[in-house]
Design goal:
- The complex is a heterodimer.
- By secondary structure, chain A is of the alpha/beta class.
- Helix content of chain A is 33%, strand content 23%.
- Chain B is mainly alpha-helical.
- The relative contact order of chain B is 0.13.
- Chain B is globular.
- Chain B is 76% helix and 0% strand.
- The chains are: A alpha/beta, B mainly alpha.
Amino acid sequence: MSPARAPADATPVLSVQHLSKSYARLLAVDDVCFRIGRREIVGLLGPNGAGKTTIINTILGVLAPTAGSIRIGSFDVARQRAAALARTNFAAVYATLPGNLTVRQNLRFFGLIYAVRNLSARVEALLEQFDLRALRDTKCGVLSSGEQTRVSLAKALLNSPDLLLLDEPTASLDPAAAQTIRGHIRALAQQGDCGILWTSHNMYEVEAVCDRVLFLSRGALLLEGDPKQLPGAHGVRNLEELFIRLAREPLTQRDGPAA
Amino acid sequence: MKLQPIGGIVLRQWFLIRGSPVRMLPMFAWVAIDIVLWGFITRYLNSVSLAGINFVSTLLGAVLLWDLFTRVMQGITTAFLEDVWSRNFLNLFATPLRISEYVTGLVLTSLATSTVGLVTMLLLATVFFGLSYFALGAVLIPVLLVLSAFGIALGILASALVLRLGPASEWLVWPLPALLSPFACVFYPLSVLPHWMRAVAYALPPSYVFEGMRTVLGGRVPPMAPLLYATVLSFAYIVLAAYGFSRVYRYAVRRGLLARYSAETVS
């Protein structure tokens, strides 16, 4: 497995080595290795139940791996959890912020948890960046899905993370709102020093946003490469066709080396 | 431990309380009702009793102190349950927040809200029923310390229980103070208990507090040694409860309970 595009900075913001997670009889993640460089957006793709969220949860330290190691920058998540997570943040469609706090209260609360300096100024800047000024004193529980996604993304950028994990960040958005969010995230990767791991089932979006994709199925990493070149290299028209082919392929046919 | 994350936990609770009369009211309403109810009961008992016991000091004083312990314990569990109710575990524990910082934030929140309840109770009991806590003298300091510390220990333990068993287990933790009260000798001396209950009572710091309170109000020498022992025991329980919470948290991380907490998978 070699990256399709060399990261801008040789030091990876995320290094996952031989990661495995098993439950009683289920191998949820099977010996997965990958890296993410600075200013790189990596798509983590796979059918439902492939192990994407399990990988994200292990990176976030809320799920201990059975084997393997995860480093965020130079910090080992298992041994230096607080230092590693201080440089990380995430937004996920299933992890909405407390609905009984207003937008501003949520940002202040999480800003303190992440020990953000000049918090008031940072909160104001994020309210501006995500067009949330008018909603600042609205409780998050009454916001629309799109508005909640914007608040989650604002929260995810509070600590200017080196590593940003986005689990289906545009899943509940209309196409126009999704495009705006994609623009925000692309700009973030290009202008900042941040590496991004992105999961999505929207292959158009993945092709438009990601520098590199990782295909995952039944916990194992099958394929890695440039989303614009992979379909042609595998004789299909687009990423969606490649996704469907890989998702339906029996595991027994996957013993050969990944492309 | 960093102060900023602890401040974040406290601030979050302040935001919730400030914006919600439903949360604000129980801080003083239930304890006020307790004081009024027991105030009249003790006043009535004083009028019909020939024993010459001042029930206001013994019974009403005991109710007030037991309510303080209950408030401290429930203050911690309620603050913890706010994260359960709002499904906030993933957002919270995927941050650099340390467990020690989280628990400290819950404890500080509980001490602040319990102080409101304590002041309310003291005002009502003193102004309307003539209860004088100064009669306890210097003993009042270890008494408040022991009950607050044991309330903290039980609150942390109850939170660990909810973290381990899932959201529905909150129904197990609410009655914990009532479960302990017969052993804590709140209203009667230790000597009336059968032997097996006494053995349990010796392990509970509040039993020393209420025995001590009755001793002082009976005009005898304050039992400082048992109160000191109760103080040490309470703080030992805090350490044990914090260790228990930390173990449960590590178990939850190992088994993936935090990520699928609402599924109540007790595995």
